[in-house]
Predict the 3D structure of the following.
Amino acid sequence: MHPATRRALYRRLRAANPAPRSELNYTSPFELLVAVMLSAHTTDKSVNAATSKLFPRANSPRALVELGVEGVKPYLRSVGLYNAKSRNLIGLSRQILERHGGQVPGERAALEALPGVGRKTASIILNIVFGEEQIAVDTHIFRVANRTGLAPGRTPLAVEQALARNTPAEFKRDAHHWLLLHGRYVCTARVPHCSRCILADLCEYPDKSAAAAPARRPAAQRPRRRRAAD
Ligand code: SF4
């Protein structure tokens, strides 16, 4: 994609949503870390439903360690892989207490050493909590970056590196949210909604959904074709 097109694409996303934010509900860095960790392979809606009950009961590393794995499980039953996530949540809380004084660490290596925390979760925390220009690549961003031509790549890491290289500085802080929301609501996995996509004329995807073509009027409203003999 030409750099001018890339810049135009981000400008459009910014104009449509000048202050994007996560759809996960949280009130502290620790709550955000827990919510992002729980969101793997499940929807933000399911996570918010679970944390709306869990956080009033326990929203700090110490309170979660005291609750324990079995105590946490009933709150996470609506979240995919809840057995493993319950274990990770308590392990993560214990490690934050023992190694980081109860505070969410601000270094990638320390974040990725926490149970259940991978590169994507660490990037989101570094971006939202610590203000770093990180663009975490999830399934939505991977799809949008490849379809549009913004940052094609075979793996999430390749896409992340391409985005890091070619995203203009002024857009880096919010690019993650814009691309994620675009993938979640417009450039959806099975059939993208190209007809209502604000990026349609900039996007390089060759298989835009048919609806992206000019709307076809119902037959009754179409002018009759003149026959040669008319
Ligand atoms: S035009 Fe279609 S394929 Fe391209 S970004 Fe928009 S929804 Fe996705």
Q: What stands out?
A: Confidence is low (pLDDT under 50) at residues 212-230. The chain has one domain: 1-213. The CA atoms of residues 126 and 151 lie 21 Å apart. The domain at 1-213 is CATH 1.10.340.30 (Endonuclease III; domain 1).
